[in-house]
Amino acid sequence: MASIQRIKSPLTGEIAYRVQIRVKGRPSESETFTSRAKAEAWGKAVESAIEEGRHFPHAAARRTSFDALAEDYAATVLVDASEEDRKACTRQLQFWSRQFAGKTLAEITTETVARARDALATETFTRGKPHTDKHGNVIAPKRYKRTGATVNRYTGALSRLFTFAIKERRLIDRNPVSDISRKKETRGRTRFLTDSEREALLAACSKSDWQPMQALVLLAITTGARKGELLSLRWADVDLKAGRALVRETKNDEQRTLPLAGKALEALRELKLQGSARSAFVFAAPNGRDEPAEHVDGYWYKALETAGIDDMHFHDLRHTCASMLAAQGASLLEIADVLGHKTLAMVKRYSHLVVDHKAKVIERMVAAKGL
After folding, report:
1. Is residue 176, in this structure, part of any structural domain at all?
2. Counting beta carbons within 10 angstroms of the beta carbon of residue 370, is it exposed (0 to 12), middle (13 to 18) or buried (19 or more)?
3. Does 350 lie in the same domain as 259?
4. Mind listing the pLDDT tens digit for each residue in 81-133?
5. Which of 57, 156, 222, 281 has the most CB atoms around it within 10 Å of its CB?
């Protein structure tokens, strides 16, 4: 079944050996090697696999659609992931499904993936909804371009899907994402609110059409918790007397306790008094259903506009918390603990903010040792 052809490059004079295997009723397969021994070994291995019924990636790949693989992956792998990871991966795979609509796995090549990745990188999107300014003009939401980090997360999700197809379903024998280069990622943002911006934002949130908006922002600033962690909070996990809240769903799948204090604690008490406790969730959906709020970006961007704040993401409230902690002399280890990071790597971006604290530590050491 296998035939080996000796090939000499007309340009370099280098010798290579191409193995071609033909089996009746199925497409031929071929590979090229630098030595005849390697070519013979590959040919024998493939022939043996075919005879034993173990070598069928091409046939299986032609029978299986991308959507079918994605559905299988969602039902068997994503079902065990955290809710946040499952939602993110589902959103990412939906993009790839649109790109590979109607295609089988055999039709998805490295080039196909690269073109889809480039389409994602140039795609723009909006946050929030159109709104009317004080003059009655309809203002379209600002359009944004996806970052290199976001594109890399999308290709990472696709790569894990194909790894599943290789190792657990034996549908393909090569991951088409493996030869795709990663997009350049910029250094993590360190944007945080100034004191005046913080006051303006909280004032704007107090006038929001969604009444819990101020409490949500206060909690994000004072605890450093992520938006998803706060929106999933249940009243059963909040102890207003002790000033504690248990976050069960976190990015690293480890529960974390948030200390509640100051205006954030007062805002939660006010929410409960005003009837928010009728829902199981602290931040219930604006439509009145007993489910966590999800689509609150419109209220957030409206508050930013009212406060006159530009280039601010909700996630930047975590940076604001870190910057305030650093200003009060917290170490990187303490900041990492508050933000829920397992390692110090993610908080290195705040190292320049704790210079004064480090200087004082060194001064105490020098004074104690007489140096």
Report:
1. no
2. exposed
3. yes
4. 877 788 889 999 999 999 999 899 988 988 899 999 999 998 887 766 676 66
5. 222
